[in-house]
Fold this protein.
Amino acid sequence: MANCVLYCVNLLKMPFEWLVGLRYTRAGRRNGRNSFISFISAISMAGIGLGVTALIVVLSVYNGFQTVVTERMVSVLGHVEIYDPRGVGLEDWHAVAADAARNRQVTGAAPFLELQGMLVHGGDRLQPSIVRGVLPGEEPKVSDIGMRITEGSLDDLKPGAFNIILGAELARELDVKPGDRVALAISQGNSVSNMAPTMRSFTVAGTFEVGHNQFDAGLALVHMQDAQEIINASGPFGIRLRLQDMQKSRAVADELRTVLPANLVIYDWTKLNTAWFAAVKSQKNMMFIILTLIIAVAAFNLVATLVMTVTDKQADIAILRTLGASRFSIMKIFVVQGALVGVFGTAIGVVCGVLLALNVGHIVGGIEKTFGIHFLAKEIYFISAVPSDLRWSDVGAIGATSLLLALVSTLYPSWRASRVKPAEALRYE
């Protein structure tokens, strides 16, 4: 590759610093020292490529897990939520939904009412949960939870029947199955005189499994009318919206705040789980920093390579100085040499990383099939394949970081080369 670049440089009649730097980059065979320096240079290039590859693959897999979890969360939560913080209920939720639907991004709206309580079964099985009141005919417009029901269906939630659909893990913890009875205990008020909870018995009509423990272990669905009757609410507490593009939820929320009544609170899906998304971002940043150390180690090898090259080429440097080359020109020679190692290593790493990231699911699947092992147990992670989401913004940041580290690594050796004194270097030549 260096020969090809050198040929191109000759054709373009580039400055001599490029010519000399490219010649130093090529494998030298004149003596054992040159061969050893070339070997160390190749190791540095391979180390940079390995670090870039690992960073691209790991971040792509991390993005894949984040995307899968986010999609599952949003499929239950909705893209935008509108609710009345007074807790008295929206008596005319249809009007609010109609006003929100005027936004071109809104494709569906459905009311909801959430209660926090304790589900009890058999006297010794207690599980805290969020009980969500929904309208079976409207819920599919804003969530995919109806498609995640493993037993029963949303149509089993009939007004006045007091049926309930539990998350699969919640049902396992309560040790119940369809047809069993569970009691819902909800605290009414905060005063000492009203400490006794409201109790209501429900019949388990089915279970759902969305693949996210927060909902599978802590969410239950009942009919809206039944939920309103328990707490004597006049209507749903809020409305959830589905958008054409979930990534525009923040802009849509801002627009709705200008057209809907000021007493309504509007959140987009990124605000509903702020702590989780903040933790994910922090972990991804830490992962980037930790894996960048691999590239940094390779960059340190590059420093050693250039220092050895400077020591070996002192006579050449002295001759160039006597021919009129400036100290800055000498610096440029070794900056070119180190930068080329960084460019080639980064290019190799980007190509390998992108190819691996795009095919990591097939590669892991092949390894599992060949050796009879499973990296992701579906019973634990709810997914059977390693997800990958390659983002070119990450690839660009990784490539730029790698090139920057390689460039910084050339500064000290090139400065040292520029300080070589011709007379002393040629004294014993």
